[in-house]
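Appendix B. Raw example, untouched.
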Amino acid sequence: MRPLRFCHLTTFYPPHNFGGDGVGIQRLCRALARRGHEVTVVHDSDAFFSLHSGPEPVAQPEPEDSASMRFVRLRSKLGKVSSLLTQQLGRPVVHAAEIRRVLDEGDFDVVNFHNVSLVGGPGLLRYGTGIKLYMAHEHWLVCPSHVLWRHGRELCTGRECLKCVLSYRRPPQLWRYTDALAREGRHVDAFIAMSEFSRAKHREFGFPFDMEVLPYFLPDLPPAPELGAAAPEPAGDDASPHERPYFLFVGRLEKIKGLDDVIPLFRDYADADLLVAGDGEYAATLRALGADVPRVKFLGRVPLEELARYYRHAVGLIVPSVCYETFGIILIEAFRQRTPVLARRIGPFPEIVERAGGGELFSTGEELLAGMRRLQSDPARRDLLARRAEAAFRENWCESAVVPRYLDIIRRAAERRGDARVLDALGDQAPAAHGAPA
């Protein structure tokens, strides 16, 4: 038995990324490296710098147990032109030779495509050999804007793609008017959606291939205490980061995140504050909306290591997104810290909250206010939801629960292809998990 050789290809990867999908990919790559596998990550810095105007982001050192990881940054003198060519033609152009070289020399057992919108488009899917996976972190496979948010103002209920993409001030993608995706997608052994909801949306919008479901995950928690034993004390300074009771919002500040509906509620809700952790292009608008609401505090970007304390001491996490997300990683971040969630009844949030039993759903401002009051006025009920949330996290969304399911997807793809080399390498690393929850 030997380690598997993985190549992960993605447009964005930390520190050259914007959202949670890049961090999710990083967690997967590190988890595989910790299990002894060899991991190469290919990502497109041209795409990142075509959208990023600030200083060069600083990369954090890789953990010692990730020493088997290798990184290939695609960077050219053409910059934005490189990204535009890929976006328009749906295949690697400037970086094609470098990608082929990496894949040919690596002789990889598994080639995992992630968000390939600007690193290679559908044409990239024919590159490389071995078992091929595609993880749909966004709805890019069926939506030019990636988010099924039509004309920048409403949920997408039917295709108006040309008019919509122009409303986003993006050039139409020529390849989307051909059979490129259906043709190139045949090179992929397994497509993976991040939630049952996302799989259903791909099917609804005409995606022609079946999809597996595999959620995001976070690092494992220490073992749960024995029944009746006291919970372990948090390490270090665990004082609340805020002097008053508070509800928490975490995420990029964009219109689709729904904070416009939440901030006004705190004009009259006097029992707690709203702490907003994050930044983005919509920040100025939201700050103006909250200028006369003293109970709304904008924290800006909060480092991950500090964010855990904000989760732990919050009355609850508010997730008011108005768009169709593919998962909702902040929900399981809250569950990991024993924090109940109040999430809008939309997209994948109902399946996550209902599976966990660790929060409530709302559709209106009145329902959200009622949920806030219940959480804050009934500590025993909040504690029950918190304990359910943590237990569900351990069962469904921690590293040790999800990575074996990922390896099982690879095993089943190898069985279908008769790939003895991959099956032999996996050995007993991927126990069957066909009925595992999403």
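End of appendix B.
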